[in-house]
Amino acid sequence: MFTLIKGSSDHLVLSAGATSGFIYLLSQIFPNKTIIWAEQLSYFLAISMLKNSLAFPIRDIKIESDGIDLEDLESKRSSTYSIKECEEAKKNQKFLGALYLVPHYHNPTGTELSPEKCEKIIKLARKYSILVFCDYLYNILHYNDKVNRRLFAYDNPKDEDYGIGHVISNGTFSKLLSPGLRIG
Question: Is 181 among the domain residues?
Fold first, then answer.
């Protein structure tokens, strides 16, 4: 069983790159599979791995010019599980499903989620017991002085409704430091 531990360095998991981390974490957290929500246009290799290699059921969410359509996510999510099921999952510190996102420099659209959208995603994740799995491969390759915070930073342990944390920030050094160095 995979346990999420509160604390700064306790949140780190070393893997052999982003793909390895992606497969390892999802298969450990959801050994019995769960619904994975993903944007209609998303990173095709990740979606292919989720569907074909890992056999997770995928449900698509509409996208807007600034990223994921949160109204569509809430509508589809609320029709999948009742409020009672969500409350029970929170009480038992379990996730009912996962949301796969590429929040910064989205592949293939190139969009970047606004801070307001990030805050709303956290609220929805907490409300519906969703684990948000973020692929961060290029977020530090910005073209201006402002670097947007990772979605993980919005899931603040000091918040009253924090629970067990709802965001996994999956990244890699391989694409940035050296393609031969497989560390994520």
Answer: no
CATH number, domain of 65, equals 3.40.640.10
Q: Which structural domain range is residue 81 located in?
A: 9-171
pLDDT digits (tens, 9 = 90+) for 153-175: 899 889 998 888 889 887 766 65
Q: How many domains does the chain have?
A: 1
- In the chain, where does DSSP find H-type helix? 18-29, 44-48, 70-78, 83-91, 115-128
* Strand ranges for 46-182 from DSSP E: 58-61, 63-64, 67-68, 97-101, 130-136, 167-171
Chain segment 83-141, per-residue pLDDT in tens: 899 899 889 999 999 998 988 777 777 788 889 999 999 999 999 999 998 887 666 66
Contact 103, 155 (CB under 8 A): no
For the entire predicted model, the pTM comes to 0.81
